[in-house]
Each structure stands twice: as C-alpha cells, then as structure tokens.
Amino acid sequence: MDTIRSPDRPASSLYQQVNALADLLESMGRYPRHLDDDIAKGETRTEHGLALSPHAAALCAKDFVRTVQFMRGVYRAVCAQNLTNLARPVNLLYVGCGPYALLVLPLMLRLTSQQVQISLIDIHVDSMESVLRIVGQLELHLHIVETTIIDAATYQIDSTRKPDILLLEVMQASLEKEPQLALTRHLMRQVPDALLIPEQIEVSLSFLNPRKEFSLQNVDQPLSSLDRHRIHVGSILSVDCHSIRTWESLGGSHLPTGRLQMPLEIPDGYRPRLLTTITVYQDIVIGIYDSGLTYPRSLNVVFRAGDYLNFIYELGASPKLVVEVESSLGSANNT
Question: Which of 36, 72, 191, 274 could in theory staple to 297 by disulfide, Cβ–Cβ 3.0 to 4.6 A?
Fold first, then answer.
C-alpha cells in the first residue's frame, strides 16, 4: 500500500500492485457475484443517473492510474487538513464507496482514528456489507463513524458532523450517465466550505487526428505524453467549487455550459472529440488516456467550419452533454 501511496513511483508503473490489491480485497469482501459475470446485473438506475453494480464498481479498481491518483490525492488532502487542525480528526464523507472503499484504504492503514474519521455512503447493500467485512478483517472499524445505504441524492448531512472533505467518484468520461454532477450539487449545498475531491473535472473540445493520436512511432512513451498535434477549441464544462456556487440558484432540467466557435479551417483527417481531465487534488491529475474516465469521446454532430456549438448539460436519469449547432449563416439545429 505504501508503494501505491508514495509519489516516488509514477502511477502508470503500478499496474501489478493495484491488480494484486484488488484481488486481495475481492477475496476479503466476498460480495455476491452473478454466475454469468454480467456487470450490469445489480446496477440501479436513479432519478439522477446510473449507479454501477457492485461487480462493475469493483472492476473500477483495476483502472489503475485512476485508483492510484485518487488514493494519493485523498491521502495528501487529509494530511494537509490534519496539519491545519490538530485538535480533532478530519471528517471525510465518501460517496459511492463500492465494495472495497478503496480510495480511503491508505488513510485508514497509515493514519489513526484520531486523525481521520470516515463516513461511507453507497446505494447497494452488497457493497456496504463487503466493505464492512474488509474493515473488520483489517481491524479498521474505529475509523468508520457512519455507514449509510442510500441514494446519495436524498442524503442529508448530520449538522453535528459536517465533513471537511467530500469525496465522490461516480462518473464516466465527459460526465455521461452517472450522477457525479447532480450528487456534487446536492451535497455541496449542505457543506459549501468542504474541500471537494476531485477538485475539478473539466470537459473540453479538441480536434484530433486519429492517425497521429495512435501512432506507434513513440510506442515507449506514456500515452498522455505524446505530441499529437491537437487543435484545442475550448472548455465546455468545469465541475468545481466555483461552478457549483454559480449554479446554486438554477433549477430546471439542464445547466448552461459552453459556447464554442469551430475553427474556420479544419484540416483533413481531424475529428471533434470530448476530452475529460480530472484534477484530484492540487497537482495530482488524471490526464487524457490515463483512465477509462478520461478517454476521448466522439462528438456526433454535423457542423461546418466557423459554426457555433452551444452546449448544455442535461440532468436527470441519463445525464449528458447536449449540443445545438448554430450555423454561422444564422440557422440552428439540436443534437
């Protein structure tokens, strides 16, 4: 665990260590698996998005760069908070803990229960029971002050135990399908002064050339470091404390996001893609291609060079970005 937590090793080099940890936690948690291994069985569709099944949530652990960066970011954030207030433990609320509560394990193994106290939320009984078996076997129960099986969109924070840190990782690339944004809004309304992790999720638009994106000329370099000659258009959506406050008074079924003008010239072979970048904490970042959460997504919309794309974020059971094309000649159409 210390190897995973330490910044001395690049996250991209820790595949074997994270895989071994996930296998160990699976054996300890013993959550029920469907015989056909269908990861969709046991998922829950809520009013605000999809809650992955315990099996699918467990598989997320093996998205190893994501796992390492979140572990490191959460650990560093708690240590920083602890230094600023030595009189009491740091209170952390972990939403969507899955069957392992994986992202807070380094905290519980390295810090005492006088340094950090953790509240866990998950919508699935099987996930929470698995977590409690793991916590029991590792004798970490003193760190856990609350376990709640609930749709987090209805959760009301105890005013006597407000979290210093709010941790949510219930998302997919470009913030589709899962309720990350909706849950963040709901909980940050209750604790606006809490530190939010991840600190920022940004979805932007770039034009990529697939032939250069996946060139094998520099196969030994990390995917996120290759020079791919992208054409960056601009940011569409940023989820952070500032944007959450900006949206505070807004109701309705969608949120306004970005308006971008397409390049006046688009080279042959370049395609529009939605790119997601996650700043977990300070300089701990999950970049493009580092994780399934940050792989580029196609933007399936017809437009011409110079047109404007007006984006909104559609809330509800299937959250996603929606775009309206505003022709540079004056007409518009929805996609």
Answer: 274
